[in-house]
């Protein structure tokens, strides 16, 4: 696992990463890789995760406890998968690609901090209900917590999709967002 993470992030930050396209057949020596379809795939995964949340909310409305548990598990699996993918593929690339653009990197880091707060809030809810006992008190609070998780996930979408996704450009093009010319 550590070799996998080292291949993705590199062992040191002092050397400039070499970006590669996802169509490359070479062994992955790049520290951070540009994936041309990543943003489209993440948008599709966001839509799927929204459908899981809608299904969970429908189960809460119908007061179907079995469907609520299944819906929570489906949402959790989809949410965690996409959060991991963004933390491994999207954020490291943006951090690297925007490094020389003070405006863009400041925006990215601010939005990322807000997104991470939302993710931590959602994860706390998921951990409480998937890892703890299904008590009367947990049942009583469940709808309120699901609505809170839906609100937080909506915030993630409103923060990332219009702000961070447009910043994800091939190497050398990131400065075009704020008008800074690539060097």
Features:
183 residues, disordered N terminus, 68% helix
List the helices and strands and how they pair.
Elements: H1 2-9, H2 38-61, H3 65-97, H4 102-131, H5 136-164
Helix content: 55-70%
Query: What is the 3D form?
Result: elongated
Rg for CA atoms: 19 Å
What's the pLDDT, averaged over the residues?
84
Oligomer: single chain
Instruction: Please give the alpha-carbon distance between the first and last residues.
Output: 36 Å
Structural class: mainly alpha
Secondary-structure element order, N to C = HHHHH
Number of strands: 0
3D architecture notes:
It is a single chain. By secondary structure, the protein is mainly alpha-helical. The protein is built from five helices and no strands. The protein has helices at residues 2-9, 38-61, 65-97, 102-131, 136-164. Helix 3 (65-97) runs antiparallel to helix 4 (102-131). The longest helix has 33 residues, at 65-97. The protein is elongated. The model is unreliable at 1-29 and 179-183 (pLDDT under 50).
């Amino acid at each position: 696992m550590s070799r996998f993470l080292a291949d993705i992030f590199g062992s040191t930050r002092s050397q400039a990463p070499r970006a590669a396209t996802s169509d490359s057949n070479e062994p992955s020596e790049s520290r951070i890789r540009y994936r041309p379809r990543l943003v489209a795939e993440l948008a599709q995964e966001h839509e799927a995760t929204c459908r899981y949340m809608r299904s969970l909310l429908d189960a809460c409305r119908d007061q179907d406890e079995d469907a609520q548990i299944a819906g929570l598990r489906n949402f959790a699996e989809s949410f965690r998968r996409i959060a991991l993918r963004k933390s491994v593929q999207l954020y490291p690339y943006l951090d690297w690609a925007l490094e020389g653009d003070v405006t863009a990197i400041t925006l990215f880091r601010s939005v990322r901090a807000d997104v991470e707060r939302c993710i931590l809030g959602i994860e706390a809810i998921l951990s409480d209900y998937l890892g703890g006992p299904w008590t009367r008190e947990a049942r009583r609070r469940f709808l309120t917590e699901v609505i809170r998780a839906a609100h937080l996930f909506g915030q993630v979408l409103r923060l990332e999709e219009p702000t961070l996704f447009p910043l994800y450009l091939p190497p050398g093009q990131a400065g075009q967002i704020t008008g800074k010319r690539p060097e």
